[in-house]
Amino acid sequence: MMSYDIVAVGAISRDLNVVMGNEEVRYGGGSYCAAFAAYAARCTTAVVTKLARDDLASLAPFQEVGIPVFSTMSSQTTSIKNVYTTPDLDRRTCFMIAMADPFQKEDFPQDLNAKIYQVAALIAGEVPLDVLKFLAQKGKIGIDAQGFIRTAVGHELVSKDWQDKYEAFPMIDFLKTDAAEAEILTGCTDRSQSLQALAAMGAKEIVLTHSSEVMAYAEGQIYRAPFKPRNLSGRTGRGDTCFAAYLSQRLCRAPEESLKFAAALTSLKMEVPGPFRGSLEDVHALLATY
């Protein structure tokens, strides 16, 4: 039996990031950032992913630190072009270059178990509803709304309301969304109202990120914690990092304490491109300022 605190589920992505006209190519994706954040928080962590054989070398960073990876071959590796159009990097236009094959139940080893499955999909259709139901029977699940509302229309990725949200939300233990996605799901421009509307739809516990702060809704209460990055050069991957950091603490801590930890770790991640590779001591030093 292979048991972990957090198993990150999602395709690896070969990203082309264009930040105010400057381009860079790097491997990433939700599962990439989530796994490293959970690992930094000293959770036992594994990854379930899909990618093309030619991109297997992209898994080396996991192997270097000892994060187990259960990968299934795909006809192609997901590849996304992200064009950030505002100085706070909170708005972006995304284009799909390629998409990995959808996950199936058979992609998960039978003896793999997790306290929380963090579903960090990138594009709608990557993780079908039947796979969510399968994981919900195995343990708690946390999902990022991005991977269910970001839809490929030709090569452009546009956000559309998630038609299965009323069926999905009640079986989801933790929901992550950003301010723009929450507005699409609820029609509310006010972030606090969005959290309450998502809860009314059946979401049990919600994490919502914004350029200035991260919020959480738990047991009828709303909590807030500011982000404190000194720069935004590592903005890509903010949401998946923040969600994983929050989940890592919710295994044993209350929502408010977990949220502050997530804000501190994510603030440090946003200063450096790529997944979070800082130390827990660095996180606690910043956390002391909250």
TrEMBL record:
SUPFAM superfamilies linked to this entry: Ribokinase-like
InterPro entries named among the record's database cross-references: PfkB_dom (IPR011611), Ribokinase-like (IPR029056)
A Pfam family that the UniProt record links to this protein: PfkB
Top-level taxon of origin: Bacteria
Residue intervals of the Carbohydrate kinase PfkB domain: 15-275
Name of the protein described by the UniProt record: PfkB domain protein
Organism listed in the record: Vecturithrix granuli
